[in-house]
UniProtKB/TrEMBL annotation:
Protein name, UniProt field: Chlorobactene glucosyltransferase
Subcellular location: Cell membrane
Main location: membrane
Pfam family, one: Glycos_transf_2
Keyword Membrane attributed: yes
Domain Glycosyltransferase 2-like: 42-157
GO molecular function terms noted in the UniProt entry: glycosyltransferase activity
Swiss-Prot/TrEMBL keywords: Cell membrane, Glycosyltransferase, Membrane, Transferase, Transmembrane, Transmembrane helix
A GO CC term attached to the entry: plasma membrane
């Protein structure tokens, strides 16, 4: 039995290395493009208590090389001066505006309802939804339009380069890109029609406006916490084309402002990539956390050294692709695994209890998703 489990663990970690190597070889990066077009982009920003981060984003948007855009900020019942900051920019720039969000109705999550409201206010050829903690580089808009037009996409999602300031962030946030780049070959999102091959990042989501207005993607997933992933699956279910790329330094994000914020933030949506199924998540988490200890006990230092070499190579590849600090990710990986256990346990508790909260709102229990034989999701 021990030998079977040992073989499983080596296969488990080798498969992650293979996926990471494939992603690194294919390099799913957003290509830089300075050439502008006449297409209008509606930049839509849902903001709830974002007074600290919103000014940085809005300032970066004023420096875009692509000039045909509008910026609409929706103040989602903030109480920290977010609306005042947005109003100052609206008074200074004709292309900027701010709207007051409506009260959250039953059956919706806050972000999905805010995005749905923003889409109704937009007039662009493309709808670009940005989180308020984003910082853009000057050629982001032109680069997005280039890929959207070239590949005839309904949805292009971009995974920002993460800005990690504190030690707590460095020991938690890299989990996101590690999971993304070792569990899914990103090129398959656009190259394979099955919705199971889907991933997205809600921090940067760019839609063809015409397609969005037909399918109302945020309304379709109105009660989903991990709305980005579910939207990409919906795009593929509807036989539309989606793609997810790494930011290639064109957009950055500081997701969380410290360790506690990261644990709380990840805890609300950690099960989403596993279809909100606890058993499926445990099948990933337990080998990741306890696998190295079992290998050491079962095969001694030699087996552990081989396993650590596999893991180390995997971390190098994912770090390079995500523009993360390689040595930090290698040295802190034991802490990252410990935090996987902590965050995962918290996510399971919140899933079972339905007591998840974010920015003062109760999230509730996520929907458990099923995959029938035709590859289409159902609840």
């Amino acid at each position: 039995m021990a030998s079977i489990l040992l073989a499983f663990l080596f296969i488990f970690f080798m498969l992650q290395l293979v996926v990471a190597a494939y992603n690194y070889y294919r390099k799913p990066l957003l290509p830089h493009c300075a050439e502008t077009s006449t297409d209008k982009i509606s930049i839509l920003i849902p903001a709830r208590n974002e007074a600290k981060s919103l000014p940085i984003l809005l300032k970066s948007l004023t420096q875009q090389s692509h000039r045909n855009f509008e910026v609409i900020v929706l103040d989602d019942e903030s109480d920290d001066g977010t609306a005042d900051i947005a109003s100052q920019y609206a008074a200074s720039f004709d292309s900027f505006s701010v709207v007051k969000g409506e009260p959250l109705p039953a059956g919706w999550t806050g972000k999905n309802f805010a995005c749905a409201q923003l889409a109704k206010k937009a007039s662009g050829d493309y709808l670009l939804f940005l989180d308020a903690d984003i910082v853009t580089r000057p050629h982001l808009l032109s680069s997005l339009v280039n890929v959207m037009s070239r590949d005839e996409l309904t949805l292009l999602s971009v995974v920002p380069q993460q800005r990690l300031t504190t030690l707590g962030e460095k020991a938690t946030v890299p989990l996101m890109n590690h999971m993304l780049l070792t569990l899914l070959p990103l090129p398959l999102i656009s190259e394979h029609e099955m919705p199971v091959f889907a991933a997205a990042c809600g921090q940067v989501m760019c839609f063809q406006a015409a397609d969005y207005q037909i399918y109302q993607y945020h309304e379709r997933v109105k009660n989903e916490v991990v709305e980005d992933l579910r939207i990409m699956r919906s795009v593929k279910e509807l036989s539309q084309k989606g793609k997810t790329l790494m930011a290639n330094k064109l957009v950055q994000c500081r997701m969380y402002s410290g360790y506690r914020d990261a644990v709380n933030g990840f805890g609300k949506n950690f099960l989403g990539p596993f279809y909100n199924k606890i058993a499926l998540f445990l099948a990933y988490m337990l080998p990741m956390v306890f696998g190295p200890l079992f290998v050491w006990n079962a095969s001694g230092p030699v087996g552990l050294l081989i396993l650590l070499t596999i893991v180390g190579c995997t971390r190098v590849l994912t770090s390079l692709l995500a523009n993360e600090h390689v040595w930090y990710n290698l040295l802190l990986f034991p802490c990252i695994l410990l935090n996987l256990l902590i965050i995962g346990s918290r996510a399971i508790y919140l899933h079972v209890s339905g007591r998840g909260k974010w920015k003062g709102r109760t999230i509730g229990k996520p929907t458990v998703l099923r995959y029938p034989s035709d590859g289409k999701l159902s609840a």
